[in-house]
Amino acid sequence: MEIENPNPVQRAVVNALRKNIMLLNQDNKLKDIPVIHRVLLFTPSIRKHLDFQNLESMIKQYVSDASPLKADLLRIIAKYIEMSVQVSETKVNSKDVVDYYLASILIYQLLTINRYDDCMELITKVIHLFESTGYMDKQKEYILCRIYTYLMVLYNHHYEIPSLLPTLLASYRLGCLHNNRIVCSVLYNSILRLYVHEKQFLSASHFLQTAQFPNDVSDKQYVRYCYYKALVATVLLDYAGAEHALFAIHKRLSDGSCVFAEEVAKLDILVRLLTGGNPDLAQLPATRATAPYRDLAYVVMRGNLAAFRDVVQRKQTCFQEDGLLRIVSRLHNTVIRIALVKMAKSYSRISMEEVASILQLGNSEEARYTCMRNIRDGIIQGRIEGDYFVMDNTEDSVTTSRPADLFSKKIAACLNLRKEIIKSRDRKSVV
User: In the chain, how long is the greatest CA-to-CA distance?
Assistant: First the structure.
């Protein structure tokens, strides 16, 4: 007879797990994807209350004796329970996707108790089995994506991260050969994450240029791809590419309060500041993680070099943990540029010693070089006369057509946006 569980929580968990298994065993004539989505959605609430004994009973009842995973699953579970669970001899005819599903739950349980060696053994077994037999089963592919995520977590905690790269690249090549977009999207982001973790941004850029991200994948994987693309572009000074990738994230990101949205907001602030824009801090999630970047944006937009250095020094650990310290350090020139623009609006003629004092530069020669560089880049209008910097403020908003031209561009952009909305609405009505 099947073991009776007096704990009502455990009983409810076992019943919920059994329902998920029954859903996987159903023969859907249309598509299996909605079913696996439902199963994976409710799995996190099940597995955190599941113990090894209940998991063993499910494996004995629903996994066939001919399954290549059953012996390994029971052998690993036997290490962590004192007594085997007695179940009925009646076996349920289950699909092999149930094997993968129960294996993924067991992998998660092993990760939570820090049993890394057994976890690695089981992950390797599942991946090898899938690569040899399972590429035509969409349900298995979604479960395998979870297992690859567990593999990344496992290497972050126990193994050397660089040693994972050959495994991911080999699996990605095999997935491309089988035209498996689901698994390839997860592997693509995992490879980019590994490159970013090891600060191999040139390799990441080469991978982005040579390997194409799969189409028609979930929004979750697509926004992560865009995030890594924006991060790599920012580090390599491609701010236009970073802005384009961040814009794509904002179009597809549904939950603005998640942890990933905070990471996107941090990078978005830095890119906007580096490109001379003013980030919309009102749209920034007001959390402890984003507070240093909010303070950083305030001091940069004010052009206060002393306050900028103070924020960087106080929050250096935070920026370093986020992997954005290199990008934050580039804002030093941005702060100087903003301060110099404000100075040009306030003075018509100023000595280099005073410029060096206001900008907190080393000497007058450094101030001279800073002024000449910004004049060359078109940031300010002026000239160097001896030891003085003379501003050319001959144009204003009354005598020039620049404000009218900018206003006309804004109006044209709004009209084009209105036309696109009308066209898209008409297409939907026709369909």
Answer: 98
**Dihedral in degrees, nearest 10, Cα atoms 86, 88, 91, 94:** -60
266, 293 in Cβ contact below 8 A?
yes
End-to-end Cα spacing for the chain: 57
Q: Answer yes or no: is pLDDT of 397 > 80.
A: no
Lowest model confidence (mean pLDDT) among 54-68, 353-367, 394-408? 394-408
* pLDDT value at 21 more than 60: yes
Domains identified in the chain, total number: 2
**Is 215 part of a structural domain of the chain?**
no
Crossing angle of helices 97-112/138-157, nearest 10°? 20
Of 133, 159, 185, which residue constitutes the final position of a domain?
A: 159
Distances in whole angstroms, Cα of residue 336 to Cα of each of 228, 236, 419: 29, 21, 41
Q: Is 80 exceeded by the pLDDT of residue 372?
A: no
* CA 155/CA 85 separation, integer angstroms: 32
Phi, psi of 76 (to 5 degrees): -70, -40
Answer whether 188's CB lies under 8 Å from 213's CB. Answer: yes
Q: Does 166 map to a domain? A: no
Range of the domain at 43: 1-159
Task: Write down the pLDDT at residue 231.
Answer: 92
The model's pLDDT over 180-216, given as tens digits with 9 standing for 90+, comes to 788 888 889 989 988 888 888 999 999 999 988 888 7
Q: Could you tell me if 280 and 311 are in contact, meaning their C-beta atoms sit under 8 angstroms apart?
A: no
- Other Cβ atoms less than 10 A from the Cβ of 178: the count is 14
* Euclidean distance between CA atoms 340 and 338, whole angstroms: 5
Query: Tokens at residue 425, please?
Result: 């609405």
Rounded Cα distance between 431 and 428, Å, is 5
- Confidence check: pLDDT of 419 > 80: yes
Which pTM was predicted?
0.75
Instruction: Name the residue type at position 392.
Output: D
